[in-house]
Each structure stands twice: as C-alpha cells, then as structure tokens.
Amino acid sequence: MRAIICGAGVAGLSLAWWLDRAGWEVLLIERAPGLRDDGYMIDFFGAGYDVAERMGLLPDLKQIHYPIPEIVYVDRQGRRGASLDYDLFCRLQNGRLLNFMRGDLVQVLFKNLSESAAIRFGRTIDAVEIRQDDVEALLDDGRRECADLLVGADGTHSRVRELVFGMEQQFFRYLGYHTAAYTFEDQALRRELQGSFQNITVPDREAGFYPIRGEKVAAFFVHRTAHQVLPLSPHEALESVYGDLGWLVPAALRHCGNGAQVYYDQVAQIVMPQWSRGRVTLLGDACYAVSLLAGQGASLAMAGAYILARALHNSASIEEGLARYENYLRPIAERTQQAGRRTADWIVPPTRLRIAIRNAVLRIAGFPGLSWLLRPALTSGTASLAEPGWASVPNAS
Ligand SMILES: Cc1cc2nc3c(=O)[nH]c(=O)nc-3n(C[C@H](O)[C@H](O)[C@H](O)COP(=O)(O)OP(=O)(O)OC[C@H]3O[C@@H](n4cnc5c(N)ncnc54)[C@H](O)[C@@H]3O)c2cc1C
Fold this sequence. Notes:
The protein is α/β, with parallel strands linked by helices.
C-alpha cells in the first residue's frame, strides 16, 4: 500500500512513522524548504503523550523538555501579580506533562522516521484526482504521484482540504483572536526574565516571554479582535496593538522588525461534517484544529495519526478504515474544541475585573490544600484515548 502525506508537521510525520511500521510505502510532501522551526512553546500531555510513549519517543522528548516551575503574571511595571504553579499542572496530569518548542518536536519526529519514508521539501500539491481504486496527486513541479491514500496533514489552512472539500471559510470557525510568536536574541531582556516564564495581561491582550536554549528568548502574543482578516504587516500590527504595554514589550517588539521569522495567524478551529472523501482523508489541524486555547492541537495531531494508522491496519478496506478513524476520534476532538472555547476568557480575560478574579484564584490556589480550585481549568479538557478494540500496528509496542 502507498500513502502520500501532504505536510511534514506534527500530524504528517507521526502518521508517516506509524504507516511505515505497518509496511506502507510513504511519500511526504512539504511546502517549506526544510523542517519548519516555528518559535512557540507547547504543553504536551493527554492523548499525544500516550502515543509518544507507544512510539518510544519519551526519552528524546525529555531531552527537548523545558522544566517550567511557574508562569509569572506581571503588570505594566513588571511587578508580580500572580503565578501559575506548573508543578501543580504536572501533578494534575499524573506527571505526564512535557513542555517544548513545536519545532523541536518536529525535529524529534523527523529524526525517528525510518529512511524508507521519502520526503520532498519545497513542494505542494496542485490538483487531486480521486479514482475508484486509487488517487492521483499533481505536484507543483509537474510530477504525478499515485497512491492508495492521500492524507492532508497540512494544517489549519490545508491545501488538500481546499482541493478536495472546498473553500476554507466553510470550515473555519474564527474564535475572535489573533496570535503571533517569534524568537530572538537579546541578552539584556533575557537577564530580566531571570530564567522564568513571564506574561503580561491587560483586557483582551496577553504577551509572554520566556528564555529558551541557544541564549534566545521566545515571544508570544494573543489579542482579541473582531477583524478576522490577517494584517499585511504582522510587525506593524503587533506594534500598534501591543506598543503601549510597557515592561519588556517595546524591547521585544523591536526584534520583530529585525528580520525575525514571525508566526502570525488567526486563532481558529476547523469544523467539518466529514473528514474523508474517497481515497482522501484529512488529519490534525487540517480537519479538527482545536486552537491554541485548547492547548492540545499537537497532542491530538499525534493521537489522530496513531488512530488512523491503527484503524487502516484493522480494516478490510481503506474506506472502512477511514470511517473507523473518524468515528473514534471525532467525539474526542469535539470535546477538546468545546473546552478550548470555554477557556478563552481565562487565557485572555476581557476586563480588568476578570483579570483580578483570575489572579485572585491563582493566589488562593497557592495556599496548602486549595490547589483543587485550579483543577477544572487545568484538567477539564484533557483528551485521552481509551484503547480501541483493534489490534495494534505490527512492530510497535
Ligand atoms: C501559539 C500556539 C500555541 C500552541 N500551543 C499548543 C500547546 O500548548 N499544546 C498543543 O498540543 N498544541 C498547541 N498548539 C497547536 C499545535 O501547534 C497544532 O495544533 C499542531 O502543530 C497541529 O499539527 P499539524 O501537523 O496538524 O499542523 P502543523 O503543525 O501546522 O503542520 C502542517 C505542516 O504542513 C505544511 N504545509 C502547509 N501547507 C502546505 C501545503 N500547501 N503543501 C505542503 N505542505 C504544507 C506546513 O509547512 C507544516 O509543516 C499551539 C499553536 C499555536 C499557534
């Protein structure tokens, strides 16, 4: 059996790993010239953690892990207002929580992929023809590739989804925020952070900075805006939205204009009535993006890859496998999407009063015996995988 996977991100590389184990020939098509090195930190727990364990990746993931004792919330003068105890978050996840940069996760997945999986960088798919018994993809270099299955694992703005299912706006649920992230070098700003993760929250806006390896700092921004359209210049947009915040923000914004690779996007979820059509299916953010507000997109991308490979392995036909995959994963993804929408006001509170309430809850939860106050916020949306009743993929634990 042969699969073409469009997108060598978290979902695509994980699926390539599992299909390769199951004896498939795999071809990955990735638009970027190399592995994308986007600069934002992810919390990794729940279903994805379980799958990473089954893939034997935990030792590698522990190498790229950043131990985070706490996230400190400061005011415009940089004074500490409250903090979120990450040890508590970790305990509530039964110790099964890691933090790393998305780019580092992708590197680990790539490193663990067998050489038999082929990958073409700097390429995309221009057309798809679904036939009775196979599918043909026309690449942008004019080559045609046939396979038993084409998987669109190409993220929220999926090309495969557009080619096979239609325009993005039908499936795009804008949640009312824009987000941005980038990394830069600044020794003075790094020293100010004193090794900790620090965030500033004002109504409808949040900015955070944290030191990362290579003497760098990672910056993260999220703000509410009714204006869904992306700005032409992310740098100018960030300047105009966050420029007045004070503290370390102006210094960090200067680096955004200095050629830093800036990730800037809408905060959105993808909601589709069907994830597959004929010999084409979608995976990860392409069909069930939960958004950064749910904090589990990477985790669910890996979980989806595992479930898809396992469903295909245990089905008499591709169509049956695709139906099993969707039946199993859809309710989990929908619950996580709901949880993400619920936590939006906690992450980016809309008023000063809501910020004060959040900070008060964080302070009170710091007293002995009161940590349960944070349990709903820190665990209610955790996606987990009950073991499907199907045989596991061969050669995998
Ligand atoms: C700021 C932020 C914070 C987040 N925090 C967390 C968190 O704490 N925990 C968590 O689990 N998740 C988090 N997420 C979500 C997580 O990063 C995504 O859900 C996850 O990366 C989705 O994986 P994916 O492989 O489906 O898509 P992606 O990671 O987007 O990968 C898609 C791949 O497809 C490629 N591609 C795109 N278009 C094409 C094309 N036309 N042709 C070929 N290739 C293409 C891309 O270059 C990329 O390599 C966060 C996201 C953001 C933005």
